[in-house]
Amino acid sequence: MRKGSTSPAAPSPNIGRRWASAPRCSAAARRRSAPSDRRRRVAGAEVTQPPSILVLAGRRSSTLDPLAAATGVTHKALVPVRGEAMVGRVLRIAAETFVDAPLFVSVEDFSVIAEEPSVSRLHAQGRLTVIEAQHHIVDSIVAASRVTGFPLLITTADNVLMTPEGMRAIVAEGAKGQADTIVMLAERGDIMAAHPDGQRRFYRFRGGAYSNCNLFWLGSDRALAATESFRYGGQFAKRKKDAVRALGLTALFLYLFRLVTVDGMFRHFSRRFGVRLRPLVMDDGRLAIDVDNARTHRVAEEILARDTNA
To answer: For the domain with range 3-309, which CATH number is right: 3.30.1490.20, 1.25.40.10, 3.30.70.1650, 3.90.550.10?
Structure first.
């Protein structure tokens, strides 16, 4: 298990905006994936080809998110963290980390985030393309990939503790050409070290507990098969039959009784979906803390304040 420290499409404009409808393909799709251990350092990693970067910012439902309501905004992506809307912070970090990478945001209605300063600036520069979000996150990823091309780095609008080091690490790992899909994880101990209230749900395997960092690398359209595991909620599915559909009966049995390591589970998934899936486990536990509720919002603000005062 490896552990590390931490030209787009030109779709037709719509009312003056760069807007890509879901079915459209782009010139980015013609880009070639870069050709080409767990405790490794990545500070010196070189990334030769910037990926397309997709930020998922769509609503989970038609109802107003409780955190958005509590902070007085109309959309969860606009919830402020240290005075900056979450979607703006994530896009700004992505843009600064990979200065030549095309940026994409998946959202059901661009107008709700269009006035956010970083969104507005990147869009006006022609660097940010908007893709209409679909009803389910998996469908949004598949639809967006027809526009973004590959390699594709995916994150979420609430991933405000994402760091340039983390982004470079997963892209450098992908550039080795040894995986179709890479999922970034952090171990429970590292997450608790970052903040004791940072995360409460974990993937519990033999040998350790992990949480994902909402950072995923897809090398080609082959990798899309693996996204289906998210359709039914994975190991956090509320209904057993959905967990079976997501993981498969064998994997669910191994997982529930902690008979498999995290590497073993990823090997099982690789066989199940016919693609090469790899975990990348990071030392920086903050990478596994996203903003889902009032508690994690407070945690994120405390960590960022600590960074500022360091």
So the answer is: 3.90.550.10
